[in-house]
Design brief:
295 residues; mainly alpha; 3-stranded mixed β-sheet; 12 helices; 58% helix; globular
């Protein structure tokens, strides 16, 4: 209990300061509502080390039981503890990786990968770039990463796919993670609506657990008119809330290959900063509207 309390205090301190990216935390909360009716409190911590820059810190269900038994404290919300680099604090187009970490929370919370191993043992499902004699050793870890990738892609689309390609370029297969190219191929397969044994296994597992299928949960809005005039885009619904990441990343990429006014005068560094700022403001305005309508 004490270990968990110390860990929780680290994440809570980050979430109660002005350092938390409230915008991406709001998007994660909206995404999580698609998958569970339980209340969740998304807390964040800032990291400095690239090797452990993004990660999810789970909370054992036993902790909540013990907290109530020993101290009569009942948690109204489950803790979702996510860490991300301080360098990316105001760069929402890079923080799309937090959707991947939310996928890890959902997997842990619902036991998705563990259940998939009951439906099809590690030896029964070939894994890309993994020799057959090692599949049983890495099956759990690799399936966890593949599920989290699919979850992130279902909300952030190519914005997450392109981030992964740049953040972990040409990383080779290891005990904990699949090779980056294999992860990208699976994301491409999913976004194109094609089939694969891994995707089919996860869909069967989700059905067995009474959960919804993984599906594309975003729509890509046209932000060009708003952003070209340096104004936030008016987000119309939750699908666009998630889709603004792919739309904005595509818009920024187009400016890098074919600059236009006023961005050509601003320069590449300023353009990237302002586009990220416009994404934040667009989401923030959506948050305000959402809370206003609920009240």
């Amino acid at each position: 209990m004490m270990e968990q309390i110390w860990t929780a205090s680290k994440f809570l301190s980050g979430s109660t300061s002005k350092k938390i990216p409230y915008e991406i935390a709001h998007c994660l909360k909206v995404a999580l509502e698609d998958w569970t009716q339980k209340k969740a409190l998304i807390t964040t911590a800032l990291t400095q080390d690239k090797t452990s820059s993004f990660y999810f810190q789970g909370v054992s269900q036993q902790f909540y039981v013990l907290a109530e038994a020993y101290s009569n404290v009942r948690f109204e919300s489950e803790l979702v503890q996510i860490a991300f680099p301080k360098l990316y604090q105001h760069k929402p187009l890079l923080n799309v990786a937090l959707y991947h970490e939310l996928g890890h929370f959902l997997d842990t919370h619902q036991g998705i990968v563990n259940h998939s191993l009951l439906l099809k043992h590690g030896d029964q499902l070939p894994l890309p770039s993994v020799p057959p004699q090692f599949i049983s050793q890495v099956a759990t870890n690799h399936r966890k990463e593949y599920f989290a990738d699919l979850f992130a892609a279902s909300y952030a689309g190519n914005a997450y796919r392109d981030f992964l390609a740049e953040f972990a370029p040409d990383y080779q297969v290891c005990e904990t993670h699949p090779a980056t190219n294999d992860r990208l191929n699976l994301i491409d397969t999913f976004l194109s609506g094609s089939k694969s044994d891994i995707i089919d296994l996860f869909q069967s597992t989700l059905l067995s657990l009474g959960l919804q299928h993984i599906k594309v949960a975003f729509s890509v809005p046209d932000v060009s008119n708003s952003f070209t005039n340096a104004r936030p885009y008016v987000i119309r619904n939750n699908a666009e809330l998630h889709g603004i990441f792919e739309a904005s990343a595509a818009y920024l990429k187009s400016l890098q290959s074919n600059p236009l006014s006023p961005w050509i005068e601003a320069g590449e560094i300023t353009t990237e900063r302002v586009i990220n700022d416009l994404v934040e403001k667009s989401i923030r305005n959506s948050m305000i509207t959402d809370r206003w309508n609920k009240n």
